[in-house]
Design a protein that fits this description.
This protein is mostly helical and about 140 residues long. It has one domain: Serine Threonine Protein Phosphatase 5, Tetratricopeptide repeat, CATH 1.25.40.10. The protein contains 6 helices and no strands. Helix 2 runs parallel beside helix 4. The longest helix has 21 residues.
């Protein structure tokens, strides 16, 4: 992704709408996956744009979904849960809203339990649960 292009696109005078803020944020976030050395920096830039969009339209389901998902990806599970549940309460039927909420809850709720797993040994007559996040 061309950084100059992103900088031009993110200038306040060029961003007119919530949709444009969402689009600019998603480009930055997608770029984070291409340049992992700047992953956190890109995510924070994208999150800042999404927060601006949410200020403009606090009940925009697209923004709630995108910001909730980005917060989940950055391990801010509690805030992500609130935003994603708000999008659903407003009527979102978007797959990404629901899937991101599931991922958020899985991570947020299990974080405490998994922290207690460390240092434990498996019993000689037990098996480990198989988990595949893509299984249906």
């Amino acid at each position: 992704m061309n950084k100059a292009f992103l900088e031009d696109e993110m200038k306040p005078e060029s961003i007119q709408s919530v949709l444009q803020l969402n689009q600019a944020a998603l480009k930055i976030i997608y770029n984070a996956w291409q340049k992992s050395s700047h992953w956190a920096e890109h995510y924070q830039e994208g999150i800042a744009l999404l927060r601006s969009a949410l200020e403009m339209e606090p009940e925009n389901m697209t923004t709630l979904t995108n910001l909730g998902t980005a917060l989940c990806d950055t391990h801010k599970f509690q805030e992500a849960e609130v935003l994603l549940k708000k999008a659903i309460a407003l009527g979102s039927q978007d797959y990404n809203t629901w899937f991101s909420l599931a991922v958020t809850l899985l991570n947020y709720r299990s974080e405490h339990i998994f922290s207690k797993v460390g240092g434990k040994e498996a019993g000689p007559h037990t098996i480990t649960a198989y988990f595949d996040a893509n299984a249906q």
